[in-house]
Structures are given as structure tokens and as C-alpha cells.
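Side project, low priority. Logging it here so it doesn't get lost.
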Amino acid sequence: MLLSLLYSLAACNAPPPAKAPAVAVKVIAVQAQDLRLHRDFAGQVSRSEETRLRSRVGGVLVGKYVHTAKG
């Protein structure tokens, strides 16, 4: 324990490590422009698993009520 205390005190007196020099980077100016965000691709989709959904209560669903906030 005394040895670890001596190591920690010796580390406090050590000079801070030298900082690395700044690295040069390329800078470009960007311009706003419209982009086409819609693309069409041909393909097929298939399920990886099949799951059966069952209700836990009996009865018939007569309606579905959704309350939305107007904004």
C-alpha cells in the first residue's frame, strides 16, 4: 500500500505530456441545394418468422377510437 502511495505521489510531480501539433485539414464551402430523396428499387420482401396474434379477452371489436391533437 505504501508503494502505491509513493507511485501516485511521483506521478503528481511529473510534467504534463507535450501536446501534439495541430493537424492541417481541408475546408470547403457548402451550398444549399434541393436533393431527390425518393428512389425506386425492385425487390422482394419475405418474413423471417411467423407469429400468431391472439387476444387475451373475448368479444368483438366494434370500433377504434383515436384522439389526436390539432396543431
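Brief comment: Residues 58 and 64 are 16 Å apart (CA to CA).
Revisit when time allows.
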